[in-house]
Amino acid sequence: MMADFTRYFIAGKIPGPIKDLLRRGTPANGPEELRAQGWAVAYHMAALAGVIVDRRPTATVSEAFDVKPRTVQRWSKEQAAAGITWRDMLPDTLSETEVAGFLSRQMHQAAEQYLKKGRLATPRSRGDSK
Predict the structure, then answer these.
(1) Which of 80, 87, 71, 85 is nearest to 29 (CA)?
(2) How far is CA 118 from CA 32, 55, 63, 79, in A?
(3) Residue 122: its pLDDT value, please?
(4) Domain extents for the chain?
(5) Which of 16, 32, 62, 99 could form a disulfide with 69 if both were Cys (CB 3.0 to 4.6 A apart)?
(6) What is the pTM for the complete model shown?
(7) What angle do CA 33, 37, 89 make, to 5 degrees?
(8) ∠ CA 123-27-106 to the nearest 5 degrees?
(9) What is the DSSP code string of 7-35?
């Protein structure tokens, strides 16, 4: 089967079974994007819980990831519905005093990677309306 797929790819065509998986609209997130979004949501949820001092966590994450605020809210709702909390992202060895700094660093690193490798490889300029 893989040999057949390879022949299609060499010819510049998408094999039928793969074409069937494609859908209109935004493509599904890959594992790197999902991980980055996980850090975004962990930061957002921890800030809303008062663990991180940030009066505008939605805006902070939105600006870091160059997405609309409603996107951050959607990511948070999706992870909450899946039963994922910000604590799930923390290593067991982290002390309570290290949590805020750790989550902040991870969120910003994830945002950099998201912008470089994710679907927003060419980020909008900051002047664009979101």
Answers:
(1) 71
(2) 8, 27, 15, 19
(3) 44
(4) 29-117
(5) 62
(6) 0.71
(7) 115
(8) 55
(9) HHHHTT---HHHHHH--SSSPPP-HHHHH
Rounded CA separation 104/96 (Å): 14
In the 8-state DSSP scheme, what is residue 86?
A: G
Burial class of residue 103 in the structure, from the number of CB atoms within 10 Å of its CB (0-12 exposed, 13-18 middle, 19+ buried): buried
Helix residue spans in 1-130 (DSSP H): 2-10, 16-21, 31-48, 57-65, 69-81, 99-117
HSE on the CB side for 38, CA within 13 Å? 15
> Across all residues in the chain, what is the average pLDDT?
84
pLDDT for the residue 43: 97
What pLDDT does 28 receive? 64
Q: Is 89 helix (H, G, I), strand (E, B) or coil?
A: helix
